[in-house]
Each structure stands twice: as structure tokens, then as C-alpha cells.
Amino acid sequence: MSRNHFNELSPCEALIMKLIWEAPQDIPVQDLIDQLRDDYKKEYARTTVVTFVGKLKDKRFVDTYRKGKAAFIHPLRTEDEYRAQLLKEEADFWFNGNVFDMVAAILQSQEFTEEEVKKIKKIVTILISNIVILKLPDNK
């Protein structure tokens, strides 16, 4: 039940990755700095952002390259890949790998609109209809 701290993102790294993942293409460092300031009121110096990007590069989340004078950041992992890994690690750590308990805890901790409840019911219905019962060999 150990956690892989090397792949965990600090809150700052997660925010930077969120912006990188949301970008329609590789993002210039200056655009990242501008978005951090404009969208999240983070007044980080260029050196601070470059340090965070370096840490993300060390963790193999991004790669960087230059085009002329501009430095660009390219994601190496998708947001879906990271989210899946994060959810699995959280389920393993907090719920001893029991995904049912994790989902139940999430559902019980939230308030839902009627529309959201309908969507959840639809997902559950689909899951139920897709259950495959494995026939175990006879133990003779």
C-alpha cells in the first residue's frame, strides 16, 4: 500500500499541468505564465515557472523544446492517464483497493441535482448490464 511520491504532483505542479493539458497544442512558457496570472491570479516569476516545469520534466510529465527564442512545453502523459493513476493510488491507499467503498464515499460526500442523479443511474444501469459472470471450473 505504498504511494509512488515521484509521480505525485504538488498543487502548483498540478495547476501547471492542468493548463498544459487544456492547451490545444504545445504551450509557450510565456503563455503559461500569462494564464497563471490571468486565470488563477498567480504572479509567479518566470524562474519559478521554469523551476516547476523542470520538476515536471524530471517526473516525465513534460518535455520542453525551443523554437527561435520561445520555449515550448509538450505533455508526455495525458490527463486521463494521470487521473486514472491518481484514482487507483487513492483507492489503494484510502480504501485498501476497494473501489466500491471509494465510489460510495464520493457519492455520499456530494449533493446532486436531479439531472446528475439520472446520469449516475444510467451509468449504473450500463455497468449492471455489462457484468459478465465468470463460470468457475468444477473442483472435482
Walk me through what this model shows:
- By secondary structure, the chain is mainly alpha-helical.
- It is built from 6 helices and 3 strands, in the order H-E-H-H-E-E-H-H-H.
- The chain has helices at 11-22, 29-40, 46-58, 79-95, 99-108, 114-129, and strands at 27-28, 62-67, 70-75.
- Strands 1-3-2 form a 3-stranded antiparallel β-sheet.
- Helix 1 (11-22) crosses helix 3.
- The two termini are 36 Å apart.
Task: Using brief descriptors, characterize the structure shown.
140 residues; mainly alpha; three-stranded antiparallel β-sheet; 6 helices; 3 strands; elongated
Largest sheet: 3 strands, antiparallel
Q: Say how many strands there are.
A: 3
Helix and strand composition category: mainly alpha
Tally of helical segments? 6
| Helix share, percent | 55-70%
Principal-axis shape: elongated
Distance between the termini: 36 Å
Q: Whole-number radius of gyration?
A: 21 Å
The secondary-structure element order is: HEHHEEHHH
Give, in spatial order, the strands making up the sheet with the most strands.
1-3-2
**Which strand-content bin applies to the residues?**
5-15%
What number is the mean pLDDT?
90
**Can you tell me the residue ranges where pLDDT is under 50 for at least 5 consecutive residues?**
none
